[in-house]
């Protein structure tokens, strides 16, 4: 059963990252992944203006001694429309996906939302907020963001043990169980690093838990 139990993030504000909010936010820092930091500081607004993705963030208002308040960036992510092309993934994974879909609705691709640039900013890292963030995103996609139907969340997860463990812990699975198969699919040579792993999460169990 899906349990939506927020802790820290319930106390935060959640908004789309606009130019005005970007100017006001303090602490948009991610030393762990400089590309993610660069996205939030330099690329997110352009991506939004070109209708390629939307970027969202959590922030909290921190009171100063003089009574004023400042907005501190807590966590962020971006979303874009995508799909899971079943004809391009291994047969074992394709069969698992199709078994969950009524026969008459099975197809060669399923609608999905791609999450990118997922991060907890440096000042709030190491406090367990990442798992809260992922649960919040799942709930938001099912309950509040219903304009476009999406069965799956997909990610190109950075191919590092701690990142992959995070997604596995949060219910994601590999589209390519064997990294060598994925390497072949994306055209990465044997002497090159496979920088990301394609992973997915089925939103249907959450929908059923909430509405059934």
Shape verdict? globular
The span between the termini is 11 Å
| Broad structural category | alpha+beta
The overall pLDDT average reads 91
* Secondary-structure element order, N to C: EHEHEEHEHEHEHEH
Rg, Cα atoms, Å = 18 Å
Residue share in β-strands:
25-35%
- Compute the number of helices: 7
Q: Unreliable runs, pLDDT <50, ≥5 residues?
A: 1-5
Instruction: Please count the beta strands (DSSP E, at least 2 residues each).
Output: 8
Q: Portion of residues in helices? A: 25-40%
Give the biggest sheet.
Answer: 8 strands, mixed
Describe the structure.
The chain is built from 7 helices and 8 strands. The chain is of the alpha+beta class. Strands 1, 2, 3, 4, 5, 6, 7 and 8 form an 8-stranded mixed sheet that branches. Residues 1-5 have low confidence and may be disordered.
Question: What keywords describe this structure?
Answer:
single chain, 212 residues, alpha+beta, eight-stranded mixed sheet, 8 strands, 33% helix, 29% strand, globular, disordered N terminus
Topology at a glance:
Blueprint: E1 13-16, H1 19-24, E2 25-26, H2 34-49, E3 54-63, E4 69-85, H3 91-99, E5 109-120, H4 129-143, E6 152-158, H5 161-169, E7 173-174, H6 179-186, E8 196-202, H7 204-211
